[in-house]
Amino acid sequence: MEEIKVFCPATIANISCGFDVLGVALDSVGDEMIVRKTKEAGIRITKLEGQNLPLETNKNVAGVAGLALLEKAEYTGGFEIEIYKKIKAGSGIGSSAASSTGAVWAMNHLLGNPFSQTELVKFAMEGERLASGVAHADNVAPALFGAFTLVRSYTPLDIVPIKNPSELYATVIHPQIEVKTSDSRKILKTTISLENGIKQWGNVGGLIAGLFMEDYDLIGRSLEDHIIEPIRSILIPGFDSIKEETIKAGALGCGISGSGPSIFTFSKGEETAQKVAEAMKKVYKNIGIDFDIHVSKINTQGIKIIN
């Protein structure tokens, strides 16, 4: 095989209590990429549609992640990459992660899969380093593994796939404002109180247990963030109203997707997820802010080949 076309899913990271360690892949929104082998060494990005992003290899997350893989691969040739962005940059649903993971997954497939999923996460993290200044894995891990993932450790890197409850749906609204990941990280505190740490650890454990047991009430009770959300929510207009109205509409919980400005909710069943979407729309229509909205099943496969 000399060429491959792939779907690269959007992702929700942090999932309220799991800053930099929890993430989940979405099914209804993602980028598409075409990757082909070339005799010429190195990586060239030959087409990029949908967003105004650089084509230069060392300035594009797909190029940087791909170069990290090439450095470790026993391959003398190179690759050409076409990127069709369906995820808006700066949306908070893993735009850079989709490009980074799509590149390394497709390259690995064309080379006969010499690298493991965890090794691919390491390569893709270099794209995240370029995008945000920090090589975090909470978006790239679920994009590659599918469903929910826990980054148990960064040193050494240890990714734990988490079971996905069959009736869980995500609703994500993206207000048309920009919040750069690098900027939203700068405002975070570098220390936390022991009291808040204890609350957060309890919620992480509760969320993981709830996912494995398919205990939707426990999932909802655990979707609390005592550390990051109180700070970052200030940057997102209408966040408190969205949270209040979505819970009234039946959502299990509501939080900031990644670094924002997107806001996510989880619901049991598609019908409730659609009601939650209507509640979200109403809030932003009243405020007068344009938005995109997605109602999605959880993507249990991750990146996949498409025609």
Report on the architecture of this protein.
By secondary structure, the chain is of the alpha+beta class. Helix content is 37%, strand content 27%. β5 and β6 form a beta hairpin. The longest helix is centred in the middle third of the chain and has 20 residues, at 194-213. The model has no long low-confidence stretch (mean pLDDT 95).
Give the C-alpha Rg.
19 Å
Helix-strand makeup class: alpha+beta
Fraction of residues in helices? 25-40%
Order of helices and strands: EEEHEHHHEEEHHHHHEEHEE
- Low-confidence stretches at least 5 residues in length (pLDDT < 50)? none
Largest sheet: 7 strands, mixed
Per DSSP E runs of 2 or more residues, the count of β-strands stands at 11
Q: What is the 3D shape?
A: globular
Query: Between the first and last Cα atoms, what is the distance in angstroms?
Result: 14 Å
Number of helices: 10
Estimated share of beta-strand residues = 25-35%
Give the averaged pLDDT, no decimals. 95
